[in-house]
Model the fold of this input.
Amino acid sequence: MDLYPIEYMCHNLPLMALSGLTIAHNSEPLHISTSGLESPAAVDPDFPNSFELYKAFNDDHHEAIWEPRAVKSDAKLQPTFRVIAVDKHYRLPSKKASPLSPRSTSSVSSGTRSPGLHSPLSPLSPESPLYPDGIMSQFWLRKYRNFLPSVVVSFHEIYTETEEVQMKINNDSELIKELNEQKRYFAERNVKLTAVIVSRKSILKSVDLNDRIAYLRKGTGLDARSGLCFVPPSSPVEIQVFAKELKSFLSPFALDFYGSLLKHARKKRGHNGAPALTSPSMQLLSPQGWNVRYELKQAVFSEYRQDIDLAIKFYGIAYESLLEVFKTIPADSSRWNEARALLDAIAFKILKCNLYLNLPVMAQKVFNVHLQSIAGLVEHTFSTTESYSFYGWKALQYQVLAQLLDLVPETISPRSVPFVGVDTEIVGPEFPSLNVLHHTGYQYLNAAHQTRMRKQLSRSSIIGVYDTYMTLPPDQEYTVDHNSLILGFLETAYSRFVGGNESQTRMQAHIAHQMAQIYFSDEKYPDALKYFYLAEGLYRKERWNYLLGYILNDAIYAAQQVQDKEQLVRLQLEFLSEGLGPWNKNAVNVPQFIQTNEEKPDGEVPEYVISSDNILSFFDVNFAFMISETHVSSTIASQLTIQSKHIAAAGDVIPSSLQINFSGSVKPIVITHDPSVSASRIKKLKIDDGDDIQKATASLQFKPNDIMTFEILQLLKKVETVSAVSVLFTFIQKSFVLKLAIDLDTAEPERAISRWFVEDDETLHSQYLSSLVPRSLTVKPKPPRVVIISNVKGPAYIGEELSIPLTLTSEEPEDIKLSMSVKVQNVEDQLEITGFWSDDDTKGSTIDLDVIASGSDSIIRDYTMRMPNETCDLVMVVTVTYQLLSDPEIDISKTHVIDLPVIFPFQVSYDLTPRIYPKKWPSPFFVYDLQSHSPPITKRWCLSATIDAVDMSHMEISDYDFKISNKTGIDLQLLDGPKELTHGPTPSDPYTHSFILDVTNNDAVERRVANADALLTLKWRRTTAKNKGEDSYNFFDLPILKLTFPLLEPRVLLDVESTSSDLVHLVYYIENATSHILTFSVTLDLNTDMSLSYPLRHQLRQQLLSKDPSAATGIGGRPSHDESDRRHSLSRDQAPPLQQHSIFNYEGNKQVGVRVLPSTCRRLDYDLLPLAVTSGWQRVPALRVYDTHFKKSLSVFPASEKFRIDFKTGAVYVNISSSSEDLSNNLGSEL
Done:
């Protein structure tokens, strides 16, 4: 890419000039580097905030070749400028050429304009490098890239050194004059001027700054938004925000600037011809050439406007037009090479613009069309494309494309895949790869190939006109180091393929092979060996043995030249393999690997260890166990089968020894060569067990394609998985020691399928083994013959000391020495429970039972442990380990797992009900305490507890402890009662008990509710532990019960004094514990719902009406106490037969108003006469108590166990006792 002018390659961005920040050198423009950035050393340090301003306007600059902000997906980001720094005397390039200046190759110059003159860079100007028939040069692009900005930001400092008014006026006037001159000068070229006034003082320190800035804007006519800006002393962050906003304001002006240039170029293109001739004798550019200029200008200005689609259009038209112009350009003129460079630049621009639009396939097509177009052009001009210059040019094109793709982001051109832009699942695998954009590794590889062709053709003679574009003449081409160029391309390509994914390893090997051949031909043998090694690894893996032999042949020669003995031994060892084709005809045996006459001290010879992973081994090794599973203390047979596939020319291969290495605790087996041992086909080895290794001897002389099988018997004494991992062949020679390690883990799957060999009359027979991995053997523990029984009944309970009996029975035919251990932990392994054996003094979890004779009785041992104080799931693992006295080294174990869920031993349900306090409450008219608002009132409560368990039949409760704590504002007295808990008739029935509590308010502050905590502790044990005495009891604290006592709420209590079938006497108590007089409306509801069925009730009713019509008003001739009740009864008797009949007569107030004084209790008595009632629970009339003031009904609570109340319906049930007489007889006697 360096062979082209930078202006041809870089991306065009709108140019912004910063004036006033740099040190003024002269009136000429400052030199601008090709990267477009002025050196920060030229920034004027005396100007306020000069470095911060310069950095803020240049912080978004990017590389010149590739502009990331031009990518289509990022087009909506903030505007981007290419920024240059100039001094305050900066002048724009001359628009017209000077009539007096001589012809020069300067790109731009300053001067006065003359009518009728052309641009200094026009082919019509004698001073132009294009005069008279040039098309376009980089100088015109440099003009708009480096010297002609679209906007100029001019920085000026406002005078604030003194507060003298006249000095400020004079400086402001000079500043207005300077700004007006700049404004007029840049307006003539349609360049936007923005003045930035910088102050050393803030507005707070210089109060007239606002007025002075307004005066400057008025005097210059520059607006406040994008014409004249004011920057007071600011932080770097504030300056960056200002620069960003100013660029956004100036971006439309820059687009308008290049838009006007685009319109001007289009207007001149519309003339469809060359400009008028200045002199009739001038030989100017053809009309087609002028069209190329105008189209190219439109493309460049469209690129400045970041209109990539329009730029592609104009670049394409310019490219097609330029191909036509070549017909008019002589091949031996300098204009030919200029046009070729311009054509390459246009193709590069089109390709890059397609990448900006994320069209990699289209970019590749543009590249292919360019190669084909130039090939046709060169063949038409020079009659052939088979020239070194053409292939040199193609190598350059691939290099330029690769360098561009190195700058392109991964989203457009990924490095890890061969090509991008095509979905092979959609287009199919037959889609031509020529039309897809490959990553940079392929481009550099193509460049190397084209350079190789250039090298070949550079040696041929050339007659006539020849093409020297981008190359040297034929007489100088021989001086070019083509191999260095090729190696440079190949090394870069190799690095790109290595940086990709692992699927491109074949290309890596291919490139490494090419580099190795070049280094080998240049006699650079160390580098050749390096790349030979990289290539042979893949060839060996892919089993490309022919190519591998070709590499090894050259690599051996290179290793001999550099005296690399280790590599030489490795390569010659691999060269013995018969699979390398015709390349190893000159292979030598192991003793001839290194030919040396050097005398080494005793025992000091080099040792070379070579892995089979790094060579193509001629030894084919298989190891197989006869079976795949066995038990400890078993003898297992295995076979090692070795086939030597070395070439016949090398003779017999005789290793000094071989070693079989195993995983696990199995010792290695070393087989030493002994020629005196008979050379049978299957060698049954006699193993001598040593401290670290196992030894054996056998004949290890291998003939070509010879197969040897070694059969081994081993005693395995440990539980593990045994695998044969490697076989190590050792060759001990006078001048070196060679060790070949064959890794059995990396063997191919088809080689791992081993066979078991059997010799019969010197004939080998084999059968395939069924094991998937024959070289591995699983050694399992010996099956235990011990029975473990645990007698655990039900779950465990929290806080319980639990003893678990374990029964052991030995079924071994001989005596054993046994030990037993217990481990208890929860399922999450966060809690471990320790215990002890009941008959062991060590208090540990392991107990030794010494020797147990064969056929002896079972042994029972108890393991005791304390359960945790929270519910959990425990796992108890009982492990029995024993050894046979005949084989004490082998441990045999058995595990027994017991699941122990730990739960609560008991569940309790409480019922708190009120009771009648037998004593009279204190008088409310007597002052007991001056600080108290009410007398101390005591209320009685009954706390009933029902205790149940999951397995109550196997548990007993012997005692309990009941405590009350955290009492607030009350005195609470627990009345003494029976200590024993009441138990049901069957063992599975729950325990019940009632606690009587007297609660007295003692707080000076009137409380509506009092609270207390109740704790019930039970002393219990399992029924199976009665024989252990007091030590077997456990204590369990039930969850704390939160008690709530309403102190001021009025309540209605119901008690019964007589429950016979002759008379039921109900007593209602209305308690008023408040300090207010309460009024209640009391109503006794008649009960019409007896337990009799409807037919019987209807029959009784008919009998009453037929005998005595007045019976409807009363029973037994006695009128009711209430006349309204009588009328009510009559009205009911006249109801349809479906109405129920009242079977109770009563004595008492049916409806009455009751006033209850503060801190008092009213008693209401009712006598009920049952009419048709037998014994049992019967519903009686219920009392309705309604608070007339608070509009609230009070519930009736039972004051004893003689009756029940349904709180949902308000129904009251009394347990009535009666004689054995029939209900009908009882009813007849009453009638």
